[in-house]
Specification:
globular; 26% strand; alpha/beta
């Protein structure tokens, strides 16, 4: 259930394949499944999703999947591409209060961008009626 009118971050779809995922769909197959999934999810949130894409999947799928903002995972160094909103630059970071490795990310745009991402959809009402995807 997604509450209407609440300040929520956009949903994120993780596009990566490793470990227990031996089948890699073609870009056409992935895009068809992705669009079918995004329809009801984005309708429930009232805002476009963000696509999380890795170094491994980016060259194969990025040009062929739905056009959305990107959360790029690139551990190789600074990004030159301007189309990302989040950048995961490390997967073995440390954070006080958490035992073990954590992913470290950067949000492009700082506090103003975060406020924009949290903004409720323009057509939402403050009725608090939940939406289901």
């Amino acid at each position: 259930m997604v509450p209407r009118g609440e300040p929520l971050l956009p949903p994120v779809v993780d596009i990566e394949f490793h470990g227990n995922c031996p089948h890699r769909p073609s870009p056409t197959e992935l895009n068809a499944e992705l669009l079918a999934f995004l329809g009801p999810v984005e309708a429930a949130f009232g805002k476009p999703a963000i696509l999380y894409i890795t170094d491994e999947t980016e060259p194969i799928y990025s040009a062929h999947v739905a056009v959305r903002q990107r959360w790029l995972r690139s551990l190789q160094g600074p990004l030159n591409e301007g189309g990302w909103v989040y950048w995961q630059y490390l997967d073995k970071g440390r954070v006080d209060g958490i035992d073990g490795d954590v992913d470290l990310n950067v949000l492009k745009g700082g506090p103003a961008r975060l406020t924009e991402l949290f903004a409720p959809p323009p057509e939402s009402s403050s009725s608090g009626t939940p939406r289901s995807p």
